[in-house]
Design goal:
Elements: E1 7-13, H1 20-39, E2 46-53, H2 56-68, E3 72-79, H3 89-94, E4 99-103, H4 117-122, H5 125-138, E5 144-147, H6 153-172, E6 176-179, H7 194-201, E7 204-207, H8 210-218, H9 222-235, E8 237-238, H10 249-269, E9 273-275, H11 289-298, E10 301-303, H12 308-320, E11 328-337, E12 344-348, E13 363-369, E14 375-381, E15 387-396, E16 401-411, E17 423-428, H13 432-441, E18 447-451, H14 456-466, E19 469-473, H15 479-499
Parallel strand pairs: 1-2, 1-3, 3-4, 4-5, 6-7, 6-9, 8-13, 9-10, 16-19
Antiparallel strand pairs: 11-12, 11-18, 12-17, 13-14, 15-16, 15-18, 16-17
Helix pairs in contact: 6-12, 6-14, 8-10, 9-10, 10-11
This protein binds manganese (II) ion (MN).
C-alpha cells in the first residue's frame, strides 16, 4: 500500500475563442499551479497536469485515458477561461472515476489599476466554473467541489482528503474479502446483497471453508513460531501465567501458527480483508482473535461473525488514513454505562480489537472463551486512548446501501481488572441519547469501523463517489431533523435510482 503508486490528473478547461495566445497563457498558469500543488507538501498523491482541453474531442480523449489508466485514481477539473460545457457532455458521460471540481483562480487578487477586458477574459473561472457546474449537475454526476485559492492550505487540505478517499476507492475496486464461514446464524444487519455490493462498491466477497485454511496453519514450522513469539515478547507484556514454560504458552504458539498461516493464505488469494466465525473452527486450536488483531494492524480489513461489509470498510478506512496520525479498528457496541451527561458505550469484542487505537503497551493474555468452538484463546488486552474519532457502518436497505457515521468522543474508562479483552469507551455525539437513538433509528449495526485519524469529510467524499446514502450523526444532530432526513432520503433514493 503506497500512495506513491497513484496519480490524480489535472485538466484545465479552456477554448480557442480567445486566440492561441490565451491558451498558451492558460497552459503556463496551469503548469505553475500543478507544480505549486505538488511542491506544497500538503497533497498525499502526485498531481499530473494533462494540459488544456479545448474541444469535445480533446476532453473525451483525456477522460477515456483516465478511465483506462490504472495509476490514475481521479481527475481534478478547473475552468481557467470559459469552457462551453456541451464540450464536456461526452467525456463526462464516459468518465467512471472520482471527480473533483476545483473552483479557484490563478490570480489571488484583482489587479485594480491594470485590469482590462483581456485580463477578465483570461481569468474567468468565476463564471467558467459555473458553466461546468451546470453540466455536471445536469448529468447528475457525483463530484466534490472545492472552493478556495489554490495556494491556501485549507483548499489543499480538502483536495488531500479527497485524494485519500480516491485511493481508498481504487483499493475497494480491487478488494477480495475472504469469509471463513458464513454469517453468524440468523444475524441480519451484518448480511446483505453481495452482488449489489460488487456493482456499487467494488467489493468481491468469497467463501473459504475453514478446512482450506487448516493445512496452512499446520504447515507452519516450529522455527517460524519461535521467531514470531520473540517478536511478541518484544512488543507486548506477556501475562505471567502465559510466558514460556507455562502450560498456557502453547496457546500463544498455536495463535502464532494461525497468524502465519492466515497471512500466507490471504496473500496467496490476493485478499485484503477477511471475516471469521466462532461457529466454524473445525481443525483449529482457537478462534483466530489474536491473529485478527495483528493482521488488522497490518492493514487487513476484519469483520467478526461473517460481517464482510465491516471487514471491507475497516480496510478502506485503513487505506485512507495511511500516514495520518491515529489508529483504526473493528469495534462492537457491547455494554452501556448510564451516567447522566457522561452516559457512554463500552466498545469491545470477544477478542478482535486493533492495537493501533491504544497508546499503552498491550498485554498478551490467554483465557478460555466459552462461546461456539472458540476454545482457549490468546488475545491482546488494552484500552483505547482518549480522543475524538468516527464510527462508521454500511447497511443494506434493500434498494440501496446506507452509510452511517457517528462522531464519538473516546473517554477514559475506570480500571477493568476482570475484563479479558481490549476495549474503548465513548460518548457518541451530540450526546448518548441522541447519538445512540439516531444510530438505531437509521438501522445501524452493532459492529462498526472506527478511526481516530479520519473525519466525516472522508466518509462524505467516499459516499459521494459511491453514490451512496450517507447519514451523519454529530454535534448538530437532533432527532426531529434526523427522522425527517430518513423520510426525505427514502423518497430521494427511490427517484434517484429511477433517473439513472
Ligand atoms: Mn460481533
Amino acid at each position: 500500500m503506497n500512495y506513491q503508486d497513484y496519480e490524480v490528473w489535472f485538466v484545465t478547461g479552456a477554448q480557442l475563442l480567445y486566440g492561441g495566445d490565451a491558451v498558451v497563457q492558460v497552459d503556463a498558469h496551469s503548469t505553475e499551479m500543478v507544480k505549486g500543488l505538488n511542491e506544497s507538501g500538503n497533497l498525499p498523491v502526485k498531481v499530473i497536469y494533462k494540459g488544456t482541453a479545448n474541444s469535445s474531442r480533446e476532453i473525451s480523449e483525456i477522460l477515456r485515458k483516465a478511465n483506462a489508466d490504472t495509476k490514475c485514481v481521479g481527475v481534478i477539473t478547473w475552468m481557467h477561461t470559459f469552457s462551453p460545457a456541451k464540450m464536456w457532455i461526452h467525456g463526462l458521460l464516459d468518465y467512471k472515476k472520482p471527480l473533483l471540481h476545483l473552483h479557484t483562480q490563478y490570480n489571488e487578487k484583482i489587479p485594480w489599476d491594470t485590469i482590462d477586458m483581456d485580463f477578465m477574459n483570461l481569468n474567468q473561472s468565476a463564471h467558467g466554473d459555473r458553466e461546468f457546474g451546470f453540466i455536471t449537475s445536469r448529468l447528475r454526476k457525483p463530484r466534490k467541489i472545492v472552493v478556495g485559492y489554490w495556494k491556501d492550505k485549507s483548499t489543499q487540505s480538502k483536495i488531500a482528503t479527497w485524494m485519500r478517499v480516491c485511493v481508498g476507492w481504487a483499493d475497494a475496486q480491487d478488494m477480495r474479502i475472504i469469509r471463513f464461514g458464513d454469517n453468524m446464524n440468523n444475524v441480519a444487519v451484518t448480511d446483505g446483497d453481495k452482488v449489489e455490493a460488487e456493482i456499487r462498491l467494488g467489493y468481491h466477497v468469497d467463501n473459504a471453508p475453514i478446512a482450506r485454511l487448516v493445512p496452512y496453519v499446520n504447515a507452519v514450522k516450529e522455527e517460524e513460531i519461535d521467531t514470531l513469539v520473540d517478536e511478541y515478547e518484544r512488543l507486548y507484556d506477556i501475562a505471567e501465567d502465559s510466558q514460556k514454560g507455562t502450560e498456557n504458552h502453547k496457546h500463544i504458539r498455536a495463535a502464532a501458527a494461525q497468524e502465519i498461516g492466515l497471512r500466507r493464505f490471504l496473500e496467496e488469494k490476493g485478499a485484503k480483508a477477511f471475516t471469521t466465525s466462532f461457529d466454524e473452527l473445525e481443525g483449529m486450536d482457537q478462534l483466530m482473535g489474536f491473529a485478527s488483531q495483528r493482521l488488522m494492524q497490518e492493514g487487513y480489513g476484519f469483520g467478526a461473525e461473517g460481517d464482510w461489509k465491516t471487514a471491507a470498510l475497516v480496510r478502506t478506512m485503513w487505506v485512507m488514513s495511511q500516514g495520518l496520525e491515529g489508529g483504526c479498528s473493528f469495534l462492537e457496541d457491547y455494554t452501556l454505562n448510564f451516567d447522566g451527561e457522561n452516559s457512554s458505550i463500552l466498545q469491545a469484542h470477544m477478542l478482535e480489537i486493533n492495537p493501533s487505537i491504544s497508546n499503552q503497551k498491550p498485554q498478551l493474555q490467554v483465557h478460555f472463551l466459552g462461546i461456539g468452538d472458540a476454545g482457549t484463546c490468546a488475545r491482546l488486552v488494552f484500552q483505547a486512548h482518549e480522543g475524538q474519532g468516527i464510527a462508521s457502518t454500511i447497511i443494506d436497505m434493500g434498494n440501496r446501501f446506507r452509510m452511517i457515521v457517528n462522531v464519538v468522543d473516546v473517554i477514559k474508562p475506570n480500571d477493568l481488572p476482570k475484563l479479558p479483552v481490549a476495549c474503548a469507551l465513548w460518548i457518541p455525539q451530540p450526546n448518548f441519547e441522541v447519538g445512540a437513538g439516531a444510530w438505531i433509528q437509521a438501522g445501524g449495526t452493532h459492529h462498526s469501523s472506527f478511526s481516530f485519524a479520519l473525519t466525516p469529510e472522508y466518509m462524505e467524499d467516499f459516499a459521494e463517489i459511491a453514490d451512496m446514502e450517507m447519514l451523519l450523526i454529530d454535534k448538530g444532530t437532533t432527532m426531529r431533523n434526523f427522522k425527517q432526513d430518513l423520510r426525505n432520503n427514502e423518497v430521494y433514493y427511490m427517484l434517484n435510482r429511477a433517473l439513472r
